[in-house]
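Entry type: protein chain
Record version: 2
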Amino acid sequence: MKLFLVLALALLGAVSARQLHAGAPEQEVPAEQGEEEPREPEPPCPTERESFRVIVPGQGGCFARYVVVNNCQTFWNAENVCACCYRGRLAFIHRSLINQRLSCTACARTNRSQVWIGGLTSDGTALILTQPLPSQNHCLHAHWVDRSSWNYSNWARGNPCRTGQTCVAMRPASGQWRSVSCGARMPFICEY
């Protein structure tokens, strides 16, 4: 059995058979020239105590799966956690029923006044597939991180209100949305 394991590992190039047999630790191989530096490690995935999963009925008998994460992150770090840990994205909300269910769940599972959802707002430099939104001084554009259509919104009074790019947060107590600096740290909702 040990011989089979040694041969399999040797063929895969993980370690040499001699190192395994001798019990020697694996040696680190220096990177070849031209290889890119290692990226920062992926963020740690939230524990079960830091997250709560919820399933919401969708259209046509389908179900949408979400996880409310009570681990405060910036918008882009939260998006990265959604991608790496749940193979999803920050939540994109297309119906009032989903918004209501997610706000109730976030209200019961977080102790913060806002949670990230997957929307972005920007001034006239917005990317394609955006929806213009009226503002006090000029037109803002909104889009979801997954680039799906912006066919529903639940903005709080006076929002979206900022210039430049901001990110969208939901107030769990009311379900209303606000435009917030993307660098703020707060819990978030992933859709996967």
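Comment: The helical segments are 2-12, 17-22, 75-86, 96-109.
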